Fold:
Amino acid sequence: MIRILGRNNSINVQKVMWCAAELAIPVERSDIGGAFGGNDTKDYLLKNPNGKIPTLIEDGFVLWESNTIVRYLCEVHGKAPWFPEDTRDRGVAGQWMDWYLTSLHPFMTVIFWQLIRTAPEDQDTLAIQSATEEASKLWAMLDNHLADRDFILGEEPSMADIPVGCAAYRWHEMAIDHPNLRHLRSWWERLADRTPYRENVMLPLT
Ligand SMILES: N[C@@H](CCC(=O)N[C@@H](CS)C(=O)NCC(=O)O)C(=O)O
Structure:
């Protein structure tokens, strides 16, 4: 049985849990990190010296970094369309997964931490506004890409949809000024039709 270490209100844990559910891989998850702690112990740091969640453990094999875990699960335990057969499709999937992590995630983190994890009286309105404007430009890029596709690689969902799909729930759920991006919205609604997505990603924002 694959073990996943990490609390389920973490977007990075949600990526892995949603992926496992789509691939029907049984996993056992333990609450680690945040209010649960446990990710700064000697034992945890021996597995994951980065001290972050999630961490995957499978028969003594240990893997960390959420996008890497998603790719591993899709390649080793999944098949097309989640792990694209075509190498160019796989390249494009990696592109959008890395784009989310390096470009969009930093702005989403500011908005999320300010609105969800900061007391209203301590929130930095200017920081929220500025991050929302920057994130809107990036979401518009994805909206444009989705104008003639149901999912990031085409007609079917794949690992490409996972990181940014988790963020799309937070984006639509948070009380910010959303630009009108109808292709993005329709794609997100298609994700929200999926039980694995609803059960692992559409959780209360805490
Ligand atoms: N690049 C890493 C980032 C992991 C990360 O920052 N995880 C956060 C939760 S989303 C974390 O471990 N925070 C500390 C904690 O929960 O105690 C990944 O994608 O796995």
